Amino acid sequence: MAQEGISRLVAMAWGVAAMPQRGPKRELSHERIVEAAVEIADAEGLAAVTMQRVAKSFGFTTMALYRYVSSKDDLQQLMLDAIVGGEDWVVDPDDWRTGLEQWTRTVSGAYMRHPWALDIPLSSEAMLMPGQVRGTDAGMRAMRTLPGAPEDKLAVIMLLTLYVRGLASLGREVIDGGHDDAARALLREIVAEGRFPDVRPLIESGAYFDESEQQEDSDELSAALSLLMPGIEQAFAEAREGASPAEPVLTPAAALDRAESELRETVALRKSTQRRARELEKREAQLKAARDRAKVRAKEAARSVP
Question: Of 102, 123, 183, 234, whose CB neighbour count within 10 A is largest?
C-alpha cells in the first residue's frame, strides 16, 4: 500500500506506518498504547493521559512510546478515532428514519461513555482515519432508502454529529455541573411575579434545571430527532420520486466483503432487536403483575365499603 505523502498519524491509524527500527516491538504497538490511554482517560480524564503515564503502565520509558506515537496530540487523535471505530454501529438499512436514529444514538452513547473525547479538538485528518470512515459508512448505510445525493447525506451526518457533540458538551458543562439551590429558588420567585411568561412553565416544572425525571433515552435527543427527521425528509423531497439510490460498481472481492459485512450487521441488528423485545416482554410481565395486584386491592377495598 502506498504511503508516500501520507501523514504518520493517518498511516498509524490504518496500520500502514513502518514499525520503529528500535524499541520493544513485541510488547508495544500503537493499538495497545491507544487502548491503555483510553483506559486512563475513562478512569481519570484526559488530563491524566501523558506519554509518561502511558509508558509507565507498560513499564517502559517515555522515549519508547515516542517510537510508536510521535506526540501527545497524535495520541489523542488516535484515541478519539478508536472510540468511534469501536462502536457496534448497528443500523437498520431498510428504514432511514430508524437507521439514522440508531446511528445518532450510537454517537451520543460514545460521548456518554467517554466524555473526555469532548476535550479533543477535531482535526482535518480525522475524516481520513478508520474509525471516522467506519462511522460515516454506517451513517450512509442508514440512509440507503432516503433518495438523495451522497453529498447531501454526508451533510446530514455532519449536522447530527455537531448536534450530538454540542448536546453532550452542554450536558457535561452545564447540566452535570448542577445549579445553586438558592439561585433556582430566586429564579422561581422572579418568574412567579409574571416576568418571562414563556419560559415560566419550564422553570416551574424543573425542566429548565434538568430536574425532571430522566428516561432511558435522552429527552433532549428524542426531542431533537422528532424535529429534525421531518426537516431532513422535506429537504430531500425534491429527489426524483421512486428513484433508488445509485449502487456502486463493485469488484467480485469487494462485493463479497460487502455481503459478509451486511450479514454481520443484520445479525447484530437481529440480536439487538431480540434483546429489546425480551426487555419489553419482561417489562410487560411486570406491569401485568402490578395491574393484577391493583385489581385485588381494588376488590378488597370495594368489599370493605359498608
Answer: 102
Q: What is the pTM of this model?
A: 0.69
List, for residues 161-178, the tens digit of each pLDDT value. 999 998 888 877 765 555
Fold of 88-251: Tetracycline Repressor; domain 2 (1.10.357)
Q: How many angstroms from the chain centroid is the CA of residue 95? A: 19
DSSP 81-95: HHHHHTS-----TT-
- Residue owning grid cell 460515516: 136
Q: Which CATH number fits domain 8-83: 2.40.30.10, 3.30.420.40, 1.10.10.60, 1.10.10.10?
A: 1.10.10.60
d(CA 17, CA 23): 15
Neighbours of 48 (CB within 10 A): 13
**Which of the two residues, 286 and 77, has the higher pLDDT score?**
77
Tracing cell 447530527 back to the chain, one arrives at 160
To the nearest 10°, the Cα dihedral for 250, 252, 254, 259? Answer: 100
| Residue-wise pLDDT tens digits, 195-217 | 888 888 888 887 777 654 444 44
Tell me: the pLDDT tens digits for 30-88?
899 999 999 999 999 999 999 999 999 999 999 989 888 989 999 999 999 999 988 88
Are residues 140 and 150 in contact, defined by beta-carbon separation less than 8 angstroms?
A: yes
Cα torsion 50, 55, 58, 64: sign: positive
Q: Are 163 and 224 in contact (CB under 8 A)?
A: yes
Cα–Cα distance measured from residue 193 to residue 185, given in angstroms and rounded to the nearest whole number: 13
d(CA 91, CA 265): 8
Rounded Cα gap, residues 210 and 179, in angstroms: 10
Residue 209, SS3? helix
Q: Is 185 exposed, middle or buried (0-12, 13-18, 19+ CB in 10 A)?
A: exposed
Give the residue among 120, 108, 137 at the shortest CA–CA distance from 9.
120
